[in-house]
Amino acid sequence: MLYHQTDFKFSKRSTKWLTDRYHSTFENKFFHDLDIDPLQTQDEWTKSPVNKELKDYLKKYNLNTDYYGIGAFISNWDYDYIGNPHIDLKFGVNETFEIKTRFNVIVLGNPEDEMVWWTDWTYADKRLVRHQFKTHNGIEYTSWGIPGNGPEERWKTLGEPDFRLPNVYFPSAFVKTNCAHTVHVSPGPRLIVTVALDKTLEEIFDK
After folding, report:
1. What is the pLDDT of residue 130?
2. pLDDT above 60: residue 207
3. How many domains does the chain contain in total?
4. Alpha carbon distance 78, 19 (integer Å)
5. CATH code of the domain covering residue 157
6. Helices (H), the chain
7. pLDDT digits (tens, 9 = 90+) for 55-82
């Protein structure tokens, strides 16, 4: 099971809060990035209408936003590009933890952008190597990743994806993130609100 599509979407109030929050960010050009800082920005998210709507919806699945808070996948580039293949991790003080699933809600962007998966590369795979990455605002961090210098080399390491699926977020979905995956990204602003979860899709939906 790779994803479970839902009909959840934000209200006009939450959508305005989000577009206002990221207005100045999208004045710059940058590749796909995860905007999250649990130590500094979660208080802002917690007080937002976005948080209330997410918590009310996730409650029906016995889920919440407590595992890693609320974040956003953002991008704003002039042309199509392939994303960096990776496996999602939660960062602790001296270790990492598995992010098994994400609940993602598209706010801006092209819903037809493909999401792709390589299901035989999984969390804690001994083939993974440490990479140094930098966020759109210059914060450096180290993560386990696919061998290779840059997205193109990592795609070659992985080979042809097992699955290429468009319209995954239409308008939202739970997606598998504890195996290698990435996205194709269309030009222009892209904003997807994300909640990391410590349950698999099978655990959430009892399949």
Report:
1. 80
2. no
3. 1
4. 19
5. 2.60.120
6. 12-22, 42-46, 49-58, 151-158, 201-205
7. 999 999 999 999 999 999 999 999 999 9
